[in-house]
Amino acid sequence: MTKPPPRVYLLVGDDRFSISEFVATLRSKIGDTTVADMNTQQFSGDHLDRGAFEEACMSVPFISSRRIVVLDNAQDVLKVKDSREFLIALLDRLPDSTALVVIENVQARGNKSKRKTSPLVSWVKANPDLGKIWQFSSPHGAQFISWVQDQCRSLGGAMSVDAARLLAESVMDDPYLAHQEIVKLLDYVDFERPVELEDVEKLTPFRGQTNIFAMVDAVGERRMSDASRYLHSVLSEEDSFYVFAMVIRQFRLLLQAQAALEEGKEIASVLNLPKFVAQKITSQARAFSAPELERIYHELLTIDISVKNSTIDLDAALEGLIAATTKQA
Fold first, then answer.
1. pLDDT tens figures, 118-159
2. Which of 37, 153, 180, 287 is the most exposed place for a label (fewest CB within 10 A)?
3. Other residues' Cβ atoms within 10 Å of the Cβ of residue 149
4. CATH top class, domain 142-203
5. Domain ranges in the chain?
């Protein structure tokens, strides 16, 4: 007898690129884009409407055997006892037709042995027939170089180790930027030969960084018109997805810089950045509080999933985020 699919898909980690790919693959299994759109709902734990979330989880799928409900930022739900108990109780009542994707964003920092076991992890381990855990840790260093080559192979191409190493250094182990560059490089060689070092040197300059830095400066200093102007400038010169990847990378660096500052570590060495870049990152990180940076980063990740689900326009989403963030930051 075939084992039924999980009701709960618990995705734990900080590799947002792979998590987004996982959700996209899961959506593709329930039907074409139209059917998937009708049977997918997304929620975020930092502002969860319990009633709407419960209704979505208990609803019957339309023209499909299953429906997908995505709960991002589940770690925020777990912070409050009442919300935590609500979520755990709901897991016990899910119908077989619901695939609940619970994303617990856990930064890969600190001593993992001292981290408390998540109630969600405990629930899945106690209910192995109803749920499953997937770990998504961001690759770094040699692992990221291997990841780049694996991505090339998955797309039907290949890349030499030297080329992969230079690309990894150019994008500073950022999977979003790496993916954009990999697609471009494979198109350039027309999938007829491996991407070589010279190809990366020719096609992967560090584009758009000046305007991205300037935009983040304007956001931190609450200069809405300037932030919008810098965003429009870089969008007029670069592909929207490349710009989006750069923005995600920038705020990820700011989060990592804040963590390094709290731990008294040298940012240049922790982030593997040149000193002048590290100084700029440090200055920007100090312009935001930790909750502000986490909120912005979570919003970016929510936009990422929505774009991959074809539910929003990326340019409009970026403009809306910058406008709202400049007012609220």
1. 999 999 999 999 999 999 998 888 899 999 999 999 999 999
2. 153
3. 22
4. mainly alpha
5. 8-136, 142-203, 209-328
Question: Which of 24-28, 211-215, 294-298 is modeled with the greatest confidence?
Answer: 24-28
8-136: CATH superfamily:
P-loop containing nucleotide triphosphate hydrolases (3.40.50.300)
Which residues lie closer than 8 Å to 138 by C-beta, 6 or more apart?
Answer: 13, 14, 15, 108, 173, 175
pLDDT classification of 109: cutoffs 50, 70, 90: very low
Q: Which residues of 84-116 are buried (b: 16+ CB within 10 A; e: fewer)?
A: eeebeebbeebeeebbbbbbbbbeeeeeeeeee
What global pTM score does this model have? 0.70
For residues 174 and 181, what is the distance between their CA atoms, to the nearest angstrom?
11
Distance separating alpha carbons of residues 74 and 78, to the nearest angstrom: 7
Higher pLDDT, 212 or 241: 241
Question: Could you report the per-residue pLDDT of 45-94, keeping only the tens digit for each?
Answer: 988 999 999 999 999 999 999 999 999 999 999 999 999 999 999 999 99
Report how far residue 321's alpha carbon sits from residue 234's, in angstroms, rounded to the nearest whole number: 16
Provide DSSP, 285-304: HTTS-HHHHHHHHHHHHHHH
d(CA 111, CA 306): 32
Class of domain 209-328: mainly alpha
